[in-house]
């Protein structure tokens, strides 16, 4: 290192550093110091309405959050092996993500699916796939989350229920969650990504069918998990994430009430899936504000009387958006801080995103390290030994109040425009996302949003190498052939009868619940793509490639 290099380092770093600004990620200005004058009233105790300090009186003293790492790749058999591995190293719940063709309801041999089969999740097309995915896993003992949106969620749920039947497990003993939210899953609520392969209004109808069907038959099953995480990953801020998600929750509540269901029969089984970004205090305050708002919406707007109906129950995933391909080991620190924020915010379930997120699916090593991160927080740091340890902090309480006020304001705008679905159809939601994406890009480029190792303290000499997950070169072609053979070697007459019955149900009784006829199609060994194509045809919708 030359003399000039040393002088540059000294002038840049050693003469004193100062942040570019003192705003949160949403733009709220942090005060230099917070005092008792910054808060109005002391928050209520934990477990007491409106649940600012947590939905349970004892929170993690009574039971730790569920460690639920998202997993899934290639075949159901391989994903089953990864699930068992994760459970063996301390995961306490299952979180399965199908591949992109499954999300889009495309069978693997479809030309639009090829290149993506098993790449970003596991391929779940047939009932046999569901059998392989949960082989040797007790469905009535381990909580299971299936990350799949409507309309595909109807088929996946039907496969799961039939698997329970085959094992002799009563549906009322099943424990878990189906994502089932057609408005948020792919790339947040962006219009083109959601509507290209299936129209949104029929997708919402099928999502409500799934909810209604499960409400009446599986009392321990969560009927929807509103994906605030994918909303946030588009680049919007904490206020938009919260308001959009809470507004979607109201859409589903209204839809079920219109079907004649009482709010207290289903509200306790609505869940959320939230992001935890890198702004430590703001993310804690956001979760506290969302709990408070949801409780008030359920009680004051929908008239819920059962206290469980008022609880904002959320799984969280540490945000991948701040994670970088440059200096990837820095992501260990980021994910650890985000996980700590989630715990201090009072979440019910947590996925810690792997440090290799910018490169690939997580390796076993990366997955294990994510679980160990949560275990260290739980068992070594002491932060769970007192309920809501940051409660009463002048900063946290003021920030919670500020975020709550701004979330309410945005909720009112959405409701005044006709609700979230109408805002989505009018492209207003997409306009908000696009604006924020551009602003985020500009802030990164200018350094207003600092990212260590990228636009701040960048080291172009860094040559860190990490092991990354690799896919088999031949697996996709083998999977395609497997599905072709499945279709050839089944009772074709049974398949035809089942698909004809589905077509008739959709055409003649669209208002009726379609889950039972979908279950009949799964029993006949129809594939996911075949079932969804039958529905597309019946509603006169043409997906790309047809």
Quick description:
The chain has helices at 3-14, 76-88, 100-103, 127-133, 152-167, 191-195, 200-215, 228-232, 238-258, 263-266, 280-301, 330-345, 364-379, 394-416, 420-425, 428-446, 475-488, 492-508, 515-523, 528-538; strands at residues 66-67, 70-71, 94-96, 144-146, 176-178, 221-222, 224-227, 270-276, 314-318, 349-351. It is an alpha/beta fold.
Notes on the protein architecture:
With 546 residues, the chain is an alpha/beta fold. It has a single domain (36-446), classed as Alpha-Beta Barrel (TIM Barrel). It is built from 20 helices and ten strands. The chain has helices at 3-14, 76-88, 100-103, 127-133, 152-167, 191-195, 200-215, 228-232, 238-258, 263-266, 280-301, 330-345, 364-379, 394-416, 420-425, 428-446, 475-488, 492-508, 515-523, 528-538, and strands at residues 66-67, 70-71, 94-96, 144-146, 176-178, 221-222, 224-227, 270-276, 314-318, 349-351. The strands form two sheets. Strands 1-10-9-8-7 form a five-stranded parallel β-sheet. Strand 4, helix 5 and strand 5 form a beta-alpha-beta unit. Helix 11 runs parallel beside helix 12 (330-345). The mean pLDDT is 94.
Describe the SSE topology.
Elements: H1 3-14, E1 66-67, E2 70-71, H2 76-88, E3 94-96, H3 100-103, H4 127-133, E4 144-146, H5 152-167, E5 176-178, H6 191-195, H7 200-215, E6 221-222, E7 224-227, H8 228-232, H9 238-258, H10 263-266, E8 270-276, H11 280-301, E9 314-318, H12 330-345, E10 349-351, H13 364-379, H14 394-416, H15 420-425, H16 428-446, H17 475-488, H18 492-508, H19 515-523, H20 528-538
Parallel strand pairs: 1-10, 2-3, 3-4, 4-5, 5-6, 7-8, 8-9, 9-10
Helix pairs in contact: 2-4, 5-19, 9-11, 9-14, 11-12, 11-14, 12-13, 18-19, 18-20
């Amino acid at each position: 290192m030359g003399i000039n290099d040393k002088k540059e380092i000294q002038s840049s770093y050693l003469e004193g550093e100062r942040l570019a600004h003192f705003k949160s990620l949403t733009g709220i200005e942090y005060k230099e110091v917070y005092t008792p004058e910054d808060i109005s009233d002391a928050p209520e105790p934990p477990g007491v309405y409106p649940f600012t300090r947590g939905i349970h009186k004892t929170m993690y003293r009574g039971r730790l959050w569920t460690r639920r790492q998202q997993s899934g790749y290639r075949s159901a058999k391989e994903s089953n092996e990864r699930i068992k591995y994760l459970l063996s190293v301390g995961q306490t719940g299952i979180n399965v993500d199908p591949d992109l063709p499954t999300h889009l309801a495309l069978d693997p041999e479809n030309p639009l699916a090829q290149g993506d089969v098993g790449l970003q999740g596991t391929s779940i097309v047939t009932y046999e796939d569901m059998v392989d995915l949960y082989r040797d896993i007790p469905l009535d003992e381990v909580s299971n989350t299936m990350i799949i949106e409507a309309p595909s969620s109807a088929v996946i749920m039907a496969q799961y229920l039939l698997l329970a039947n085959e094992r002799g497990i009563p549906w009322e003993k099943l424990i878990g969650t189906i994502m089932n939210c057609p408005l948020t899953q792919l790339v947040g609520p962006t219009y083109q990504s959601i509507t290209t392969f299936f129209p949104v209004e029929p997708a919402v109808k099928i999502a409500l069918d799934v909810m209604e069907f499960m409400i009446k038959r599986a009392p321990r099953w969560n009927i929807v998990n509103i994906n605030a995480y994918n909303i946030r990953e588009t680049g919007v801020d904490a206020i938009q994430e919260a308001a959009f998600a809470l507004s979607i929750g109201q859409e589903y509540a209204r839809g079920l009430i219109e079907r004649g269901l009482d709010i207290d029969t289903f509200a306790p089984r609505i869940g959320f899936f939230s992001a935890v970004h890198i702004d430590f205090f703001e993310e804690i305050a956001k979760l506290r504000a969302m709990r408070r708002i949801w409780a008030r919406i359920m009680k004051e707007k929908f008239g819920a009387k059962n206290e469980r109906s008022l609880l904002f129950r959320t799984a969280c995933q540490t945000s991948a958006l701040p994670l970088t391909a440059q200096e990837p080991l820095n992501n260990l620190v980021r994910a650890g801080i985000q996980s700590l924020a989630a715990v201090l915010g009072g979440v019910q379930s947590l996925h810690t995103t792997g440090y290799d997120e910018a490169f690939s699916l997580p390796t076993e090593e990366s997955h294990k390290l994510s679980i160990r991160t949560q275990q260290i927080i739980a068992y070594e740091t002491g932060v769970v030994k007192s309920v809501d340890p940051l409660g009463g902090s002048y900063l946290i309480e003021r920030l919670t109040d500020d975020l709550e006020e701004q979330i309410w304001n945005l909720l009112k705008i959405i409701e005044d425009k006709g609700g979230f679905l109408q805002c989505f159809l009018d492209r207003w939601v997409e306009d908000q996302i696009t604006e924020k994406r551009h602003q985020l890009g500009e802030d990164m480029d200018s350094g207003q949003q600092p990212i260590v190792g990228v636009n701040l303290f960048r080291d172009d000499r860094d040559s860190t190498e990490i092991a990354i997950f690799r896919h088999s070169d031949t697996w996709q072609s083998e999977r395609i052939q497997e599905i072709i053979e499945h279709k050839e070697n089944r009772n074709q007459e049974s398949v035809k009868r089942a698909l004809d019955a589905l077509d008739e149900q959709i055409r003649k009784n669209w208002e009726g619940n379609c889950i039972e006829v979908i279950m009949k199609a799964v029993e006949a060994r129809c594939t996911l793509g075949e079932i969804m194509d039958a529905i597309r045809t019946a509603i006169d919708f043409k997906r790309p490639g047809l």
